[in-house]
Amino acid sequence: MKRDVRRYDVVLVGGGITGLMVSHKLSRLGLRLLLLEKQPTLASGPSTRNEGWLHRGSYHAGSIRDRENAVQVARRCIYGHEQIRAFAPEAVEDADRTPLVLVRDADRVQELMSRWDEAGVWYRPRTRAAAAASFPAADLSRAAAIFEVADVSLNTRMLYRKLYTSAQQGGTEVLTGARLERINGLEASVVTAGGEKLHVEAGLFVYSAGFGARDLFRDFFQLELPIRYWKSHLVVVPRLGPHGLFYVDAHEAAMMHHGGYSIVGMNEDALLCPEPDYNVIEDKAGNLHRALERLVPGWKRGATFTDVACTKVDFSPDAGAARSLNIAIHEPVPGHICILPGKMTETPFLTDVLTARLYERLEDGLIAKRPCDVLHANLTLHRREPSHAA
């Protein structure tokens, strides 16, 4: 008996922010999509275990050592910031309270402002007195310069719900608790949460599974992707002040607020680890506590707090290189594409680049071609035609 096969333009593997945003954008182009998430809930990994910080370039322009790379990441964050705010303005928190940036190293101030200017980062200098009035509990004595910037906090759950709803309205089929059992070319077997086995085929498979991508390509294609795991720590405490507050210097605290709570991380504390997990490393959490104590003295007295570990990934053939915050789009197997955003706020840039590439490969010819499309098609056909020697 012939088996029933479900056909899609794209099968997406991984339901975090990247998978949800790709689903939203591709479905709006009329593509038929299947989104698979092995966990029972969407966005259960780093997508919801981060600071919920919608960057606008101010931090990365200063924290990345290489100037060209720093400016590039900052510009992509600005692009993503504006796109996410336009798509889900209701998910922005504290929209009327701009955060404060602290610079500890006086020798870096001019270079930082130069990078901000080049990248298009909005900022405004603040006096120590004005900053102290904005955040009375903070110790600002170590800051050589203070600025107001345009970063905001983001309710990521609300953003993801809106992306999910948009994708569903566009016809995307979403299966949670589902896992890939077999892949053969552009066909696959999927086991649903209820134990049903589905047979699917697609024009392309796209993997936005974060740290799960390495195991998928290892299991199904016997390939070792150069994916690395980086663990960082956060502490969640009752709200410490009215405004976001963060250093751009290494090993200093950075906080954003969500309602009645503050989520605090530490700059450049990511630890390279051999395998991914969410176990808290006590001495690393202690380093974060001390950094927060330097910023908000006495925060721990009588406070209830929770330590959280978050494992993120990057794609780097050089195992000894510093952590990369750049986007990654790789097709190690024809028809099977692995994607990674450097930061959550870079996801719109990543998904727009990916969407353009996939549309070129999957479009159905309904829209008339531009002159450049005709030339591209002719050149591609010419390259494919075999040459015949006389």
Automatic annotation (TrEMBL):
Pfam families: DAO (PF01266). Gene3D superfamilies: D-Amino Acid Oxidase, subunit A, domain 2, FAD/NAD(P)-binding domain. GO terms for cellular component: cytoplasm. It comes from the Bacteria. Residues 9-319 form the FAD dependent oxidoreductase domain. InterPro entries: FAD-dep_OxRdtase (IPR006076), FAD/NAD-bd_sf (IPR036188). Transmembrane segments: none annotated. PANTHER family: SARCOSINE DEHYDROGENASE-RELATED. This is FAD-binding oxidoreductase. It comes from Corallococcus llansteffanensis.
